[in-house]
Specification:
Layout: H1 19-28, E1 34-47, H2 64-74, E2 87-88, E3 97-109, H3 111-119, E4 125-132, E5 144-152, H4 158-168, E6 170-173, E7 186-197, E8 200-207, H5 214-227, E9 254-260, H6 269-300
Parallel strand pairs: 3-9
Antiparallel strand pairs: 1-3, 1-4, 2-3, 5-8, 5-9, 6-7, 7-8
Length: about 300
C-alpha cells in the first residue's frame, strides 16, 4: 500500500547525511541529551502498518513495538531490560496503520532531542511529539480512540449504510463483531460517521475502546448492508451464531487516526521539517505508482 523509504529520515536529520555521520555526531552529543532524573514521557507517533506484523512485539517478526524498542535502546533512551515500562494506547493488527498512537516509558533523555533521535533509527514509523507525564500515566487508559476505515466506493447505498451505522451506536454486546480474547464484549460506540470522499466512503469510529477486529467487522456489516447482501433486520447483538455470518474487511484500509489521553501533544519543530519532507517524497512516489497503473490499464484496453 505504501512504498518503502528506508533511510530517508536519517538523511534529512540535522545532525548528519548518512548512517556513519549520524552515529558519529550522535555519540558526540549523547551526554548533552540527558537530564538529572529519570521520568515518564509520552510520545505520539505514526507508522505504516503494511510494513509490520502488527504492533505487539513478537519473536523473529518485524513489529512496531519491536522497532520502537530497538530504536530507543540504540539511541540510549531506554535500557533493553526491562525496557523501562514501555506502554502503548493501541496494539493495532498486522497491516493497520496509525497517525496518532501513543506510547510511554521512563527515560532520562531530554524531550527536545527525543523525537529526532528516535526518527534517526526508526524505519516505517515516525515520532512527532514528546511530553513529560505523571509517573502513573498509562496510555491504555485513553479517553477515546478514533479509527477510520476507507471503504472503496462501489454500488453501496449511502443512506442504508448510515442507517446501519446508527444502529451500532451505543452500548451493546459486540460478541458477534469481534475476535474474543477474554475481555468483556460490552463496548460503547460514541459515534460512527460516514462521508463520501471519492474513491472512498470514509467511516469514522469513535469509542473509549474496541475489541479485537471489531472495527473491521462492523465496517463489513455496514458495507454489506449498503450492497444489499444483508438485511438491516438481521442485525443482532450478543453471543451466538451471528459471528459466523460476519465477515472481516482487509486491515490495510484501516488507520488509527488519534488517541485522546487527556493531554496535549505539541508537534516537535524538527519533526515538522524533516518528516514533512519525507511525507512529500512518499506522496510523489505514490503519484508515480498511480500514473504507472493508469498507463498500464490504457495499454491493456
Amino acid at each position: 500500500m505504501f512504498p518503502s523509504f528506508r533511510g530517508s529520515i536519517k538523511t534529512t536529520l540535522t545532525w548528519g547525511t548518512g548512517p556513519s555521520r549520524t552515529t558519529q555526531i550522535y555519540n558526540h552529543v549523547l551526554d548533552e541529551r540527558r537530564v538529572a532524573e529519570t521520568r515518564r514521557v509520552a510520545v505520539k507517533l505514526a507508522y505504516d502498518g503494511t510494513r509490520f506484523h502488527g504492533f505487539q512485539k513478537q519473536p523473529e517478526l518485524s513489529t512496531v513495538e519491536g522497532e520502537l524498542i530497538a530504536a530507543l535502546c540504540k539511541v540510549g533512551a531506554i535500557s533493553p531490560d526491562p525496557e523501562r515500562g514501555l506502554r502503548s494506547s493501541s496494539r493495532t493488527d498486522r497491516g493497520v496503520s496509525a497517525l496518532g498512537n501513543v506510547i510511554s516509558f521512563e527515560t532520562d533523555f531530554r524531550l527536545r532531542s527525543l523525537c529526532p533521535a528516535m526518527n534517526s533509527e526508526l524505519e516505517g514509523a515516525w515520532a512527532y511529539s514528546a511530553v513529560e507525564v505523571d509517573g502513573g500515566f498509562n496510555p491504555r487508559w485513553a479517553r477515546q480512540r478514533w479509527y477510520r476505515y476507507h471503504l472503496p466506493i462501489a454500488s453501496q447505498n449511502l443512506s442504508t449504510m448510515r442507517t446501519a451505522a446508527c444502529r451500532m451506536i451505543g452500548t451493546h454486546d459486540f460478541s458477534g463483531f469481534a475476535r474474543l480474547d477474554g475481555r468483556s464484549p460490552i463496548r460503547t460506540i460514541e459515534s460512527i460517521e460516514i462521508t463520501e470522499a471519492p474513491p472512498f466512503f470514509v467511516l469514522d469510529f469513535r469509542a473509549e475502546s474496541f475489541l479485537w477486529n471489531m472495527v473491521r467487522r462492523i465496517a463489513w456489516f455496514i458495507n454489506a448492508a449498503g450492497e444489499g447482501s444483508v438485511s438491516l433486520d438481521s442485525l443482532e447483538f450478543g453471543p451466538g451464531v451471528q459471528r459466523r455470518r460476519i465477515g472481516l474487511l482487509p486491515p490495510e484500509f484501516l488507520i488509527l487516526m488519534d488517541v485522546d489521553c487527556g493531554i496535549d501533544f505539541p508537534v516537535d519543530p524538527v519533526a515538522i521539517r524533516t518528516l514533512g519532507r519525507a511525507m512529500n517524497e512518499r506522496i510523489a512516489t505514490l503519484d508515480m505508482e498511480r500514473e504507472f497503473c493508469r498507463l498500464f490499464s490504457e495499454r491493456l484496453d
